[in-house]
Amino acid sequence: MRLSSAQGRWVLAAVVAGSGVAALDATVVNVALPAIGEDLGVGVAGLQWTLDGYLLTLAALILIGGSLGDQFGRRRVFTIGVTWFALASLLCGLAPNITVLVLARALQGVGGALLTPGSLAIVQSTFHPDDRGRAIGAWSGLGGLATAIGPFAGGYLIGAVSWRAIFLLNLPLAAAVVLIARRHVPESHDSHASHRVDVGGAVLGALGLAGVTAALIEGPSRGGPLPWVAGVLGVLALVGFLVWEARIEHPMLPLDLFRSRQFSGANLVTFALYAGLSGVFFLLAVVLQSALGYSPLEAGASLLPVTALMLVGSPLAGQLAQKIGPRVPMTVGPAVAAVGILLFRRIDEGATYVGVVLPAVVVFACGLALTVAPLTAAALGAADASRAGVASGVNNAVARVAGLLSVATLPLAAGLSGAVYDDPPALLGGFHRAVAIIATLVATSAVIAWATIRRPPGPPPAETAAPPFHCAVDAPPPLPQQV
After folding, report:
1. pTM for the structure as a whole
2. Angle CA(168)–CA(13)–CA(185) in degrees, nearest 5?
3. Rounded CA gap, 273 and 165, in Å?
4. Of 233, 253, 304, 412, which has the highest C-beta tally within 10 A?
5. Would you list the DSSP string of 363-419?
6. Residue 198, SS3?
7. Any residues with CB less than 8 A from the CB of 237 and at least 6 apart, and which?
8. First-to-last CA distance in the chain?
């Protein structure tokens, strides 16, 4: 299909709007955390679960979501995911307490696992090779607009209506996406894919991540042996997951993908980078509101330079990576981002936006803009186009697992617990400690990139050329799925 055709534009509209629904939700939930905590009367652990409930099911199932699209039809699985996400959003908006909200967020993650890899896979498999790069560029750029609109619209709704409105906003958007997709998006699938679903792998992965997350979040606050027993069982389940995937005939995580040094290295970089980014976006939104007195709208708008610089810089970084290879941008970019993160340590009571917050945001965003496009080129370029859904799912899953573990671990490592967001000095002290940890993680991703990433031996054929943008723009940039 050609991008210039009417149907091509409708296809692009459907996948952009579909991923935009998840992007809107991801960017706004962080901003809404203080309001959720105050309304439902929960502490840091409750806020962690609000994010990690979603990330848990998303990370555990996104691999099977990509493979389901390849097997049973990318449009079908994409529309099911959008519908599921909308219904779970309705439950989030109506949640009477934190338990129901966390369960509803987990259900949202199931929908996200179906729609997220399907969005990029539809573009990759539908458009003519000559238009594929431009289509993915438009998908990433227009999706970034949703990320930019999210903090404004969500911040306004939180202040003027309620945090519940940010979830209910998804309903009309999802309805429009399903209508467009059913009318205009052609069905596609991998003709070589097996019609067997790796249920065992999905169950072991979900149990493993749930056990480890429960131990990290509940262990410090609850005490007793139960959380740590859950942690041990979680680790055993993750080991069992790897053994299972290595032995079955049709795994949802084909371990042979990691025989590629480029693919393995890029996913290691993704893990370290997105662990840091998820921590930044989780804590910064809380600190700006609880310690500096920002409104939800002001807190969301304060990160707008990240989106603006990503929109301008990512295409340029993609072109640079095509000329000189991804190694240098993937090394320099995280190093610059780490410097920006360290600048967040200057945030203290009375700090001004222009003098303190904005410089850190700009340096941080410049590093991201230089990194994201080459990272995708290195990760997806190492996989065959016929496995676009699985490769996209793997890279998304790595980013989501990194975010999941970061949100679960950072408060513990930085000494943040209870209702610390009501105690600005304690919150700022923990934030400063967390920032040092996050900067180290992001700097580590630069070292990994330099050690593992190499320039491909030659340009790939048009049919298998890697897209110049990151498949996970709904999560940090995605700004961390923001998370």
Report:
1. 0.80
2. 105
3. 31
4. 253
5. HHHHHHHHHHHHHHHHHHTTS-GGGHHHHHHHHHHHHHHHHHHHHHHHHHHHT--TT
6. coil
7. 204, 205, 207, 208, 211
8. 33
The amino acid present at 471, given as its one-letter code, is C
Interatomic CA distance for residues 255 and 244, integer angstroms: 11
- Taking each continuous run of H as one helix and of E as one strand, the counts in the chain are 16, 0
Say how far apart CA 322 and CA 328 lie, in whole Å. Answer: 11
Cα gap 90→276, rounded to integer Å: 30
Helix, strand, coil in percent for the chain, rounding step 5: 80, 0, 20
Instruction: Express each pLDDT in 330-375 by its tens digit.
Output: 999 999 999 999 999 999 988 899 999 999 999 999 998 898 878 8
Residue tagged 């999941």 (tokens): 404
Over the stretch 54-101, which tens digit does the pLDDT of each residue have?
Answer: 988 888 888 788 778 877 888 899 999 999 999 999 999 999 999 999
Judging by beta carbons within 10 Å of its beta carbon (0-12, 13-18, 19+), is residue 233 exposed, middle or buried?
middle
Q: Measuring CA to CA, which residue among 158, 125, 142 is closest to residue 14?
A: 142
Residue 139 φ/ψ, nearest 5 degrees: -60, -45
What's the rounded Cα separation, in Å, for the pair 475 and 470? 10
DSSP 257-279: GGGSHHHHHHHHHHHHHHHHHHH
